[in-house]
Design brief:
Number of strands: 7
CATH topology: Hypothetical upf0131 protein ytfp
Largest sheet: 5 strands, mixed, barrel
Radius of gyration: 16 Å
Strand order of the largest sheet: 1-3-2-4-5
Low-confidence stretches: none
Order of helices and strands: EHEEHEEHEEHH
Helix content: 25-40%
């Protein structure tokens, strides 16, 4: 099998964790980046959940595409499945993405399962900020996660107005 692409929209952007031979800016149509997943472990607990990013239906999302050599397919997919499918809140899909320059390619992407108990879509920025404030999990506090996500996206010149609005509401004064 030949090389394949993986689409990153959140932590995969700044911490892919797998070997790849090319990184390109890309857009996925039909899905948007959203804090739509309750975190019961990494950024919160069952008693005090936090929020983490997911790809939810609607709009489009700018992220990064990683081209993976075909000979690493099994290894990289095993790594991604272990990382992304732990609680089954994400669904693995192969979706068309548009690379910078206009070429469309299929890519592995992880979208949120709207039927999963951790899905919490449709939050406005104020409500999302209230959930995030004070949530702490095994990987640290939820505020740091959101602020870091915005910082990494801004460093790449990727603007996400809704996420930036949430970050403004949780940023320490």
């Amino acid at each position: 099998m030949g090389d394949f692409w993986v689409f990153g929209y959140g932590s995969l952007i700044w911490r892919p964790g797998f070997a790849h031979v090319e990184t390109r800016r890309a857009r996925l149509y039909g899905y948007r980046r959203s804090l739509c997943v309750y975190s019961f472990v990494h950024r919160g607990t069952r008693e005090r959940p936090g929020l983490v990013l997911g790809l939810d239906r609607g709009g489009s999302c700018i992220g990064l595409a990683f081209r993976v050599p075909g000979e690493l397919r099994d290894e990289v997919l095993a790594y991604l499945r272990e990382r992304e499918l732990v609680t089954s809140v994400y669904l693995e899909r192969v979706l068309d993405i548009r690379l910078d320059g206009g070429k469309t390619v299929p890519a592995v992407a992880y979208i949120v399962d709207r039927q999963h108990e951790q899905y919490v879509g449709g939050l406005d920025a104020a409500h999302a900020a209230n959930v995030i404030r004070g949530a702490i999990g095994q990987s640290g506090n939820n505020e740091d996660y959101v602020l870091s996500a915005v910082e990494h996206l801004e460093a790449l010149g990727i603007s996400d107005h809704w996420l930036e609005e949430v970050a403004k509401r949780v940023a320490p004064l």
